[in-house]
Every structure is written in structure tokens, then in C-alpha cells.
Amino acid sequence: MDILEYQIRQSFHSAVCGLIHEIAETSINKKGVFRIVLAGGDTPAAIYHRMRELETDWTKWFFYFSDERCYSENSGKLNFKMAKDSLLDHIPISDHQVYRIETYLGANEAATLYNSVLNEVNSFDLMLLGLGEDGHTASLFPGNDLGESVSAPSAIPVFNSPKPPTDRVSLSMRRINDSENVIFLVSGESKRLIVEKLKSGSELPAAKVKGKISTKLFYLTENQ
Ligand code: 6PG
After folding, report:
1. pTM above 0.85, yes or no
2. Is residue 211 lining ligand 1, measured as CB closer than 6 Å?
3. By the 8 A CB rule, do 127 and 179 touch?
4. Which atom of ligand 1 is nearest to the CA of 67?
């Protein structure tokens, strides 16, 4: 994993959006589509806001989610709602380009449903991920089954998340690692210790993430 540190928010945003743009254009030129997975959390939200400005053919983009919180269908606390407000409602795309995780049905049913969606989808071109102080990523928390085996489903239900709410659906580690490129989006002094741990190698969930082409962690050291 390459770790890149930034002190200035503008430089962090430009570097991340520049790389997302480059990966998107490469995918579109090569395959005619770009499959991106969106993460939840505050750091990704700020990036989505900036992504609206990208000059790209948005009709070629397909959006998926790394994980979702179990709340009612239109709750403001959903990762889907955050992505909608910060990006999806502001770009020229249609509904069939966005694949939300339907957690209002409950974690088990939503995971089953998302599995059937993802079974039809090839490797992701880009996976965006957040990072928790405890080393979690998506909704894969230390001590839980991360879904690492070759037979693990793409999406797994989670019932004991230490970050609220307790019930969630997450992509499994197996499916996360079936991505060409991975970008971690991390900010704030509270994340310094965990970023150091990842640098020195560790057994934490985030340390197990490895894209097939590249894995980069962008760290904005100041709080946003
Ligand atoms: C969520 C995310 C979670 C998040 C990290 C980092 O539901 O919140 O799935 O994995 O990305 O906790 O979030 P912050 O950037 O807000 O610290």
C-alpha cells in the first residue's frame, strides 16, 4: 500500500480527484464503462463534493457501495443519501447507473439482494474506502469475519458494528480485493496512529486490502 500524506486540504482534494479522473478515463477508453465503489464517512463526502467538477462522460459511470448502514429507506444517515447529496444528484446520470444496498429490508435480505446484483458485475475499476481509528474499512471490523475465503459472498450482513448503527451490510474482503484499484480516503489527527500501524504492516482489516493494480492511501493530516 502506498501512503501519501498531505497537509493542505486543496492539495489533498486535487490529488485524489486527479487520480479518480485518470482511472475513470483509462477504464472508459479501454472498456467503455467505469465501475466505481463509493464509501461512507466524512472524508469521502468532501471528495464527492469536488468530484462534481470532473470533466467526464458521466453516462459511462456505474456506482456501487462498499457498505451501508441499516436505516429506513430515506434516512439521512445512509451512505447512499450522503453520496446522493454530495455527488449523485448533481451529475447527469440516470437511476440505472446507481446500485444502492437496500438495507431498509434488513441486513440479511439486503446482503442477499446485493449479492445477486454483484454476481452480474465484473471486477470493480476503482474502490474508494474510508478508514476507522480501529483499523476497520467498509463495515469490516477487527475481530469479525471479514469474508476472506475464495467462496465468500460479495456482500455480507454485519450485526455487531461498534460504529453505529450495529446492523450493516458490507462488501467482503474477497470482493473488495477483486478491484483493479483501491483508494483509501483518510483525514484528521485522530487517524495518525492507525495510519502509522498500516505503514508498519498489521493484521487489521484495512491492512488486508490489496487492489489488483494499485492500492493507495491518501492522508490529509489536518482535520477538514
Ligand atoms: C461508514 C463507513 C466507514 C467509514 C470510516 C471512516 O459507514 O461510516 O462505511 O467505513 O468510511 O469509518 O469514516 P470517516 O471518514 O468519517 O472517519
Report:
1. yes
2. no
3. yes
4. 9
